[in-house]
Inverse folding.
């Protein structure tokens, strides 16, 4: 009997896009990627056209103020270029990343196959680089799956890393870049310096990433509302973190009971 995949993408609309660039911003260190991509969606008034659900997200739903449920998911939005020197965009944001390694590979594979269907030739992933202290003027580091691609973005003020500062990129931001080369897609990860605290959204780091992106994409957006937007997101982000933390503790308690141990620690 064939087992259904634990991850699937539900298409709500099939837009006709020309040479789209995929931008991914998911929760992570400082929530930099999620903030930047979400703000881009709002400012460009991008339209949602697909949802990704997965059994590799935490097994929980959030309860909305109107007593309805919110299922953890990732969402795809599209934006049509307004000028000849611009590209159509697909922007991927989400509530969560996978909670296990197998899920990361499964979800990234689904995203890359989806990107191929829309003839995506280039991907930008966004994230934060935790440095353990508050940063007033965050620098942006770029890591690509192709040396030529990395060098072409140096003129936008990014730092090219040779592994001296960033030895690994954990999660979807790095995995998408690494695996996309097998799909014939150029990909670059832009990481902005941040304190490294997941629970505190870093609008300065998100702004640093956005300043690089808008130059590359040749678009104009108003960045003056970003700080206010981040403040409005804080309660939601904290609720999300606490909910997932609670579910994690329940799983660990169950595992401890099954293994007959008094205590199990989780590192991640």
């Amino acid at each position: 009997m064939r087992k259904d995949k634990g991850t699937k993408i539900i298409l709500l609309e099939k837009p006709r896009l020309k040479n789209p660039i995929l931008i991914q911003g998911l929760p992570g260190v400082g929530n930099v990627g999620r903030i930047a991509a979400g703000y881009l969606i709002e400012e460009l008034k991008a339209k949602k056209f697909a949802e990704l659900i997965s059994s590799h997200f935490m097994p929980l739903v959030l309860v909305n103020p109107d007593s309805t449920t919110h299922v953890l998911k990732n969402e795809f939005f599209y934006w049509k270029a307004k000028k000849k020197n611009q590209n159509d965009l697909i922007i991927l944001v989400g509530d969560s990343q996978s909670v296990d390694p197998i899920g990361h590979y499964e979800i990234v594979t689904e995203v890359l196959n989806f990107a191929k269907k829309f003839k995506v030739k280039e991907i930008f992933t966004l994230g934060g680089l935790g440095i353990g202290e508050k940063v007033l003027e965050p620098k942006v580091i770029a890591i690509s799956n192709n040396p030529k691609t990395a060098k072409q973005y140096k003129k936008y003020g990014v730092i090219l890393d040779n592994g001296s500062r960033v030895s690994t990129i954990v999660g979807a931001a790095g995995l998408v870049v690494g695996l996309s080369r097998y799909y014939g897609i150029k990909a670059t990860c832009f990481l902005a310096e941040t304190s490294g605290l997941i629970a505190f959204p870093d609008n300065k780091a998100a702004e640093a990433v956005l300043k690089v992106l808008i130059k590359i994409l040749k678009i104009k957006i108003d960045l003056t509302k970003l700080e206010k937007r981040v403040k409005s997101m804080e309660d939601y982000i904290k609720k999300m973190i606490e909910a997932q933390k609670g579910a994690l503790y329940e799983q660990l308690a169950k595992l401890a009971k099954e293994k007959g141990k008094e205590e199990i620690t989780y590192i991640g």
